[in-house]
Amino acid sequence: MGDESTISPKDRFLTVYGRKPVLEALADDGLRVDKVILADTARGPGAAEITRAAKAAGVPVQRASAHRVKVLAGNGKQDQGVLADVVAPRMRALSAALADRRPPSRVLLLDGITTPANVGMILRTATAAGLDGVIVPRRGVAALDPLVVKASAGVAFRAPVLRCGSAGEAAEMLAEAGYGLYALGASARTTVFDVDLPQRAAFVLGGETAGVGPEVGELVTEWLSIPMPGDVESLNVSAAAAVLSFELVRRGR
């Protein structure tokens, strides 16, 4: 799986769509754009501007049917007939990361988080905290699109994203690789501040409404809570991720 030829393009690129996001990506010297794809129907000043920007950046432009662009973008309403594949240098398949000589020691696993703003903020927080990886499954979690990139303030492009099919698949792979699996739950007696952690640990963040799904829940080693002395039932999942991420930073100091 570590062989580059077997890795899905979705494990190498973040795809942005729409004229403004594509132009912003082409203008950013810190990003490497692999290619731009323009719909056959895209004509006029907007298409010309993108073609000029791509040429100036040395990025190839491919033409495809409008339907193909919609399929590749995964968003038929907002692609505006153009998308760009941006190289995400730290994004790779979870299987490749686990097969590494030095596999990641602390990772987050997103399970059913469907709000792009939450996914983007979690990527920003985890990257800031220096975590080894954020597992973003292709199914059941918000797609890594311009909304996620915007919520991450652009950090999503260089976040340590690990890809796999589903959260359940990820949980099985992690358990087989010897990781402790810790899920956040409001009623857990053990807290994120007092749990004894093994050398390798994965922390599951459940969806905004349903929480951690049963498929992943069956494999959880221990449930953890964030103590809240105030009269509030729970935190937003991205806020919980921040508390957890920086508790790991504190422990590592």
Topology of helices and strands:
Blueprint: E1 13-17, H1 19-27, E2 33-39, H2 44-57, E3 61-64, H3 66-73, E4 82-87, E5 92-93, H4 94-98, E6 106-111, H5 116-128, E7 133-135, H6 146-151, E8 161-163, H7 167-176, E9 180-184, E10 201-206, H8 214-217, E11 222-224, H9 237-252
Parallel strand pairs: 2-3, 5-8, 6-7, 6-10, 7-8, 9-10, 9-11
Antiparallel strand pairs: 1-4, 2-4
Please give a structural write-up.
Mean pLDDT is 92; it is low at 1-6. The protein has a seven-stranded parallel sheet, sandwiched between helices. Strands 1-4-2-3 form a four-stranded mixed sheet, with helices on both faces. It is elongated. Helices cover 34% and strands 20% of the residues. It is of the alpha/beta class. It has helices at 19-27, 44-57, 66-73, 94-98, 116-128, 146-151, 167-176, 214-217, 237-252; strands at 13-17, 33-39, 61-64, 82-87, 92-93, 106-111, 133-135, 161-163, 180-184, 201-206, 222-224.
Descriptive labels:
seven-stranded parallel β-sheet, four-stranded mixed β-sheet, 253 residues, alpha/beta, 9 helices, Ribosomal_eL30-like_sf
The chain-level mean pLDDT equals 92
End-to-end CA span: 34 Å
Q: Which strand order does the major sheet show?
A: 5-8-7-6-10-9-11
Measured as a percent range, the helix fraction is: 25-40%
Give me the secondary-structure category: alpha/beta
Beta-strand segment tally: 11
Give the oligomeric state: single chain
Task: Tell me the fraction of residues in β-strands, as a range.
Answer: 15-25%
Mind telling me the C-alpha Rg?
Answer: 19 Å
Low-confidence stretches: 1-6
The succession of helices and strands, N to C, reads EHEHEHEEHEHEHEHEEHEH
The number of helical runs is 9
Largest sheet descriptor: 7 strands, parallel
Global morphology = elongated
